[in-house]
Amino acid sequence: MIPASAYESPCTDLRNGNTAASEPWLVSMTRWPRARSAINLVLGRTRETLSVRNDAAVLPRAAGFASAMTFQWYTTDHMEAPLRAASIPALKVRELGHVSLFVRDLEATRRFYRDLLGLRETGTGKAGRIVFFSAGRHHHDVSCELARADGPGPQPKGVPGLYHIAFEVGASLDDLAEARRCVEAHGLQPFGETAQSFSIRDPDGHEIELYVDSRR
Questions:
Q1: pTM of the prediction?
Q2: Is residue 177 within 8 Å of residue 169, measured between CB atoms?
Q3: How does the average pLDDT of the chain come out, rounded?
Q4: Same domain, yes or no, for 82 and 104?
Q5: Of the candidates 50, 55, 77, 186, which lies 20 to 30 Å from 136 by C-alpha distance?
């Protein structure tokens, strides 16, 4: 059983208004200035979760346990982690910048992305070990770097990892048919066909989807 003396220091802190770094972190029923009803005041690091709603201070209470001796609410760092995580705002990503791939043969990669798909080669890097391709919006939408080690290549469909990369090739079914004729002329066999798309594979086996968007 926890002796009553273990609560003396925290309770003294409460009476003196000292709410910083109390261990264990305490929650005391008190009144927030200008609040219209009693609220839970979290002491120590959890004070940053305070917010104001409808003119009254509101505080979500973390998981914990109440003491029948002191009528206080006790929590731990582990209990309060979900509450703190919920208060962290999400990032605001503006758009996808580019896709980077490791490849086995840069010249074969150039023939596919530049000569077949028509992406513009915009530069190289790392002493010629990486080449950049652009569809026109960014400096590069795809970067392909010479692989540094042997590997198994693309994994079977359905396992975690890259599934495919998609490129829009037009806005009509005529555009899609023209794209199909082009890839077949280069000796590639389309697969995974839908009403508005089909797929091919690059020299390293990555699945490349070509599609049309009639909403444009």
A1: 0.60
A2: no
A3: 75
A4: no
A5: 186
pLDDT tens, residue by residue, 66-111: 655 555 666 666 666 666 666 678 888 888 899 999 999 999 999 9
Q: Are 200 and 183 in contact (CB under 8 A)?
A: yes
126 and 207 both lie in a single domain: yes
Q: Which domain holds residue 75?
A: 13-86
Higher pLDDT, 72 or 198: 198
Cα(173)–Cα(214) distance, integer angstroms:
8
Q: Which residues contact 36 (CB under 8 A, 6 or more apart)?
A: 55, 56
* Euclidean distance between CA atoms 115 and 118, whole angstroms: 5
Do residues 207 and 105 both lie within one domain? yes
Q: How many CB atoms neighbour CB 171 within 10 A?
A: 13
Task: Indicate whether 81 and 132 sit together in one domain.
Answer: no
Q: Which amino acid appears at position 111 of this protein? A: R
| 39, pLDDT greater than 60 | no
The residue whose two tokens read 């086995």 is: 104
Specify the number of domains making up the chain: 2
Taking CA atoms, 68 is separated from 7, 12, 43, 120, 128, in Å, by 12, 18, 19, 72, 71
